[in-house]
Structure of DNA-directed DNA polymerase:
Amino acid sequence: MFCHLHVRSAFTFLFGTFTPEQLVRRVKALGMSSVAITDRGGLYGAVKFVKAANRAGIKPILGIEAPLSDGSILVLIVKNKEGYSNLARLITATKLAQRDVFSLDDINTYHRGLICLTGGRDGRAWKLIRSGKLVEAKEFLGLLKDIFEADLYVEIQNHSIKTDIEVSGELMRLAKKIGSKTVGTNAVTFLKKEDFIIHQILVKIQQTVHHRAISPLPCDEFYLKSEQEMSCVLPPEVFHAIGEVVEKVDFTMELFRVHPPKVFDRDTERLTELCFRNLAVRYKPVTLEVLRRLEKELNLIFSRNFSSYFLVVYDVVSWARNRGIRLSIRGSAVGSLVTYLLFGGPDPIEHNLLFERFLNEGRFDPPDIDVDFDSERRNEVIRYVFHRFKGKAAFVSTLSTYRARGAVRDVARAMGRHLGEVSELTKFLPYHLRPNEINEALKKLPELAESPLHEENELVRLVGNLSGLPRQISTHLGGIILSESLLDMVPLELSPSGFPLSQYDKDDIEKLGLPKFDFLGLRMHTAISKTLSYIKENGKALDLDNIHLNDSDTYRLLCSTETVGVFQLESPGQRQLLSRLQPKCFSDLMIEISLFRPGPMQAKMATPFIRRKHGKEPVEYFCPELKPILEETYGILVYQEQVLKMVAKLTNSSLEWADVFRRSMTHDRSPEEMEKLRVEFISRCIKSGYSRFVAEKAWKQISAFASYGFCKAHAAAFAYITYQSAYLKAHFPLEFYLGLLNSGQVGSYPPWVILNEARRRFPVYPPHVNFSRFEYTIESNGIRVGFCAVKGIGAKTAEKIVKDREAHGPFKSIPEFLARVKLSRKIFCTLFTIGAFDGLGNNEGKVA
């Protein structure tokens, strides 16, 4: 059977025209049993390719095109596990050295377990023969033979180009002289001949939009040909060697099941010690319930060898806390007693949070512990992580694919349209619209009724072909991989920030079972940190992380809906829901946050909940046994954890099985698959002694709820920060406003909205050369606007003014200011225009 061994997918960015999934479907349709993917300089699409190939019963072969310094390439194919590790290390060594080309010395270092093809028409040997340099070509092939020995295959091609047969014949003769076999390839770049135009457009985008010196392929023959088509253009003797290569490949990309770097030698003992040390601090007294819960959680963590995950996060969190960096845990991890003992936050026992939503016997994927840090200081944490785990850490990448607007813009420019015309073509196109959805949008959206795209059939057709194609990789918002064996498993390159970046994206990392940690930034932590520092400067003491969650002033503020600046509760919609719900306790706050989500709002879940809460509607349970599960939410399903408990109760199964069942409903399922789940659920309910009515009613609720249910642990994590921010606004409003103003845009509103809100309660003083600093400051029980609020006045200019003022005293006149502080005319005019010199000589600044 023939196999294409040299294939460039869309992960040869803006050159290849198809995704790995499309490649596999086409290979299957052509009746082939194996195929390779060999993208330029990386394994970007490898995981997606392997997943698609395994599903289709196609043997996946991994490799890359390795560009050399003279513009030629080699094709390197993974033969076995050692070869995969060596290829990953070769890519990493090249990319982290900021090189786009591979050196033969590095290739020699990492050659074991790799098969080498000579690159066909893009290879050095081919180019040397075309230039009449047969001796040099033989010497180069001999060099490769010394490195790869029997794993070197000379690569020929025939694209019906004039010199192809002649050069291929000479390559075959040289192959015999050095004792190597010859394979034939087609350097596949598009799936069908008619897709050549897509390749040309992509290359044109590189030329016109990205200004790269690159040429398109010379003809339309570089498509995925059938075995019969290839047998018409290649000599029969190359087919045996192709089969030999396929047989040699013995590598299966499976879940690596690896663990993060070891922080402590005896990780289970260390985790146990940390938990019990904090147990007496968090719980007074330590009850039997707490001890049993801790024992259950630790036993599961130990049985899964997950101790090191918790200890890595503990190491990073401890380092940050020792440096005063504010942080919190989010997500389902908040439901764990172990995470509470290690990191604090809401008490999972007090708030009835489920550990099984985080980890259970039915889940084998690594723990997902997400940490939010003070945004302004997150980079300090990131630098520590990469220093602490040097050689074992990398950012997770994210994949950028074309959206309709960007695709229309790039294709139109590639077709030579001027910028004004491009702007008209993209006007009113929805941001999230996919390229292949434009025709449908033109029919349905009234704002596109007059769009010139109606007359651009060819442009829209070409744009549609870019749907789903990757453009580039970039750095994921907060994901970091940490692993002892990282370099053997993941090809890396350099991120814009200078740290290693995985060529695999978030989905790939999860499929491989690699340890991923999300270290995110949260601006509210920045604002709270600054607020606490201002409170301390004013001689007041506050331990915000140990305040009671039943403060009447805080709930009075929340019920008043004066929540601009309060975490999660400041938008008009949230404040409207607050006024209806009237939260009186922390549980109400969790529910408020959970209900204000697209799914629950669309389903209008808030209305029956609020009516029941305020006694305007009876609380009913279609099954009395469900009352303990739904009582806290007045019979309304609000949390994912309630689904777990309902499923477990009605089917007489474990929470572990219930979680597996819940997650199976949340994935994209066909109607047929959902029907199978429904039948299984109802059958289990009936076997457990419940009526068909109860089973059908329960299925209707949980199946509808599965797509938008909110994790209760996550709600508790956010509600905790919400409560803290509301507490600060209720008790320390001036410091809180200042904290918000000096943290950029923290939530829904920019600083000027916060300032107008503050003006209702406190005097606000305008920028002034004798009083202002760069940031906003507290002055005379009011707020002095800082130079940061003045367009054109940067931190350096403000520092120059403040430094001179502190060294030589207040400015007494404008001429004196100009003599002491050297500023440009433009900056002086700005300061003069805003009144920053008003009152010089009388020590006063006007109230704004």
